[in-house]
Design a protein that fits this description.
alpha+beta, transmembrane, six-stranded mixed β-sheet, GPCR_2-like_7TM, G protein-coupled receptor activity, five-stranded mixed β-sheet, 3 domains, GPCR_2_secretin-like, membrane
């Protein structure tokens, strides 16, 4: 409304300057497209303001009968010349008949909500989604706009809410998201591509849950450490499976929400395990042929702790997906919060005297200095989605993988700035399904697409059914790496041991010659180099043919990573051995010098690429060195020095 009033005032003022020498053309905002009027005229619609690249529906209820969508209008332009609407669809496109459910959701979206009706609105919205076949794209859009209006209501009623009411809020929001995952795929894609619906829905529900999680009333509810099943018609029924003080869990058919206070429970994560009788083949069939009956009924949950053993977790044969925040990340939050806190020391009171002004002492008592705002209460929110139907890109409605599980980790008040990475642990499917790993970004992509999958710098840990590695891995690797060359040497020694003796008295070096040189040394090395060369070409081919939808951003970082990998493989392919082979049968010293110069560098290259340039390894060794430097001073500290 403020933008609209400013726009009208500027337009009226500039129009008054029209003369023979000055002609007023118009006023454009560089960020918003503003409505022409806030009054409904015959044959016209009233439009909401739209950001650049955004499509909006009108303020009035105007649906297209064929698609079940509201009429839309898109804001075009750029930040240089300003924004402008594309076209103005009139009310002649509107159908005269509206479903009662659609009318109800529309009224909720345009009406100012308050605390007295909030519970009824959320309950009614969940009931409308109970029959997926009757939901049209407009229903999903007006539902998302309704949820977008809920957080301000929660701010006004943060205190004094009974536990039953808080539980009802959590269950209603969880039920709404769970039932969205049952909707027809065409309905969801149509609504998302036209009006960015699912992105609004996800952002709104996350904001609601975060707002409820940090409230004082929720902390009192978390101290009981209970779990609630929101699928029961009688409400959220308490389930005493295993009490964990400082946690509360809400479970629906296709959505699980855990809220934990690490300072009380030491719980910072959640893992989902499939039932023993649910095989990987069954999961693969469900991924290809998703049925409405599929839900979390065949899965069990387990809380994860900040000092959780990664090896024990990945060794679980039934692990489906899980995530937890490691202890060093939790410990680094206070330091991170202090680093990003901006003190108000630079802001001075305009009425305060200048530093050069001399003032007399005053008996008036000075107020206490302002206290820095306390860090937000630490809450860890883990959300597991049964499928990715709600994560649709605006442009083409793509998803990561059919029926794939999605896990969300949130720390309200800390944003996306973390001291370190928060890993996700999953188990790859038995069949060769697209196993892409990505994270959902709410940011705009090229100023035209809000909400999209990003696959850059995403590393998803997978554990196979055989465990982390084959049994006796070191022993088998030793036998293969040392046993193969030893077998070749033993064979030639048994045939002619003189092949490994000195050929003359000019040198004390024993080096194979004859058949031992050609077939026992050069041929195996040449075979290995050839196989590595083929592998190198195949890797480069796959890097150069990555689909464009997997490289939406951070192309520069990806190019640098590919370049580092290419150089690394170049050294691993055996460049020194190529120089060594070229010294055979010639008296030239060039390749001999090149061999001596490049062979010792291999170990250094391995150290640089696996330790120095790897963030995880670098942080690990930095912590080790820092710990070792602190430990010698510990006895002195205990003695008071």
């Amino acid at each position: 409304l403020d933008h609209y009033q400013t726009y009208k005032s500027l337009t009226a003022g500039l129009e008054s300057l029209n003369s023979e020498r000055v002609r007023f053309l118009g006023v454009n905002s560089t960020e918003y497209c503003l409505p022409e009027s806030l009054h409904l005229a015959p044959g016209k619609n009233i439009w909401w303001p739209a950001r650049l690249g955004e499509s909006v529906a009108p303020r009035n209820l105007c649906l297209i009968e064929q698609s079940g969508l509201p009429v839309t209008r898109r804001c075009l332009g750029d930040y240089l010349y300003g924004c402008a609407w594309d076209w103005n669809p009139g009310s002649e496109l509107c159908t005269g008949q509206h479903r009662p459910t659609t009318s109800a959701l529309y009224q909720y979206s345009v009406t100012s909500l308050n605390h007295s009706v909030l519970g009824e609105v959320l309950t009614r919205a969940g009931e409308i989604l109970a029959v997926p076949e009757q939901v049209i794209p407009a229903d999903l859009f007006y539902l998302s706009k309704t949820l977008e209006n809920v957080p301000p209501v929660l701010e006004q009623s943060e205190t004094g809410s009974p536990d039953e009411e808080r539980r009802a809020y959590f269950c209603n929001v969880s039920t709404i998201l769970s039932r969205v995952m049952y909707l027809n795929e065409t309905t969801v894609v149509l609504s998302q591509r036209a009006l960015n619906t699912t992105n609004i829905l996800l952002d709104a529900t996350e904001t609601i849950v975060n707002r409820l999680a940090v409230a004082n009333d929720t902390r009192a509810m978390m101290l009981a450490g209970d779990q609630y099943d929101c699928r029961d018609r009688g409400g959220a029924i308490q389930r005493h499976v295993q009490r964990h003080d400082g946690t509360v869990l809400f479970r629906t058919a296709r959505l699980i929400v855990l809220i934990a206070d690490p300072t009380v429970a030491n719980v910072t994560g959640l893992a989902l395990f499939r039932a023993r009788n649910l095989s990987l083949e069954d999961l693969s069939d469900a991924a290809e042929n998703s049925e409405s009956e599929e839900d979390f009924s065949g899965y069990t949950l387990r809380y994860l702790y900040m000092n959780q053993s990664l090896e024990d977790l990945l060794a679980e044969s039934d692990l489906e997906i899980g995530s937890f925040i490691p202890q060093h990340v939790i410990e680094g939050l206070d330091e991170l919060n202090t680093a990003f806190r901006t003190p108000d020391d630079e802001e001075q009171d305009p009425d305060a005297p200048d530093e050069s002004t001399t003032t007399l002492p005053s008996p008036v008592e000075h107020p206490d200095p302002p206290v820095s705002p306390a860090p937000p209460p630490l809450r860890v929110i883990i959300t597991i989605y049964y499928n990715d139907h709600a994560f649709r890109e605006t442009k083409n409605g793509t998803i990561a993988r059919p029926n794939s599980k999605i896990i969300s980790v949130s720390l309200p008040g800390y944003g996306s700035r973390m001291p370190d990475e928060i890993p996700i642990y999953t188990r790859e499917m038995a069949r060769e399904l697209p196993s892409r790993c990505g994270y959902w970004s709410f940011e705009a992509d090229n100023a035209t697409e809000f909400g999209h999958w990003s696959y850059d710098e995403c590393r998803l840990l997978n554990a196979s059914d055989r465990g982390l590695r084959p049994a006796h891995f070191i022993l088998k690797a030793t036998v293969c790496c040392w046993g193969g060359p030893l077998l070749i040497v033993a064979l030639f020694l048994s045939l002619d041991y003189t092949l490994y003796l000195k050929r003359d008295n000019l040198s004390d070096i024993c080096y194979p010659h004859g058949r031992a040189l050609w077939y026992g040394l050069l041929l195996p090395i040449g075979t290995i180099i050839f196989v590595n060369l083929v592998s190198f070409v195949i890797v480069l081919y796959h890097i150069c043919t990555i689909p464009s939808n997997l490289t939406k951003s951070a192309d520069h970082a990806m190019t640098l990573a590919q370049l580092r990998l290419s150089v690394f493989l170049f050294f691993l392919l055996g460049l020194p051995w190529i120089f060594g082979m070229l010294t055979t049968g010639t008296e030239e010293k060039l390749f001999a010098y090149l061999f001596c110069l490049t062979a010792p560098v291999q170990g250094f290259v391995l150290f640089v690429y696996f330790v120095v340039m790897d963030p995880s390894a670098r942080r690990f060794w930095c912590r080790k060195v820092a710990t070792a430097a602190v430990l010698p001073g510990a006895p002195h500290q205990r003695r008071g020095r």
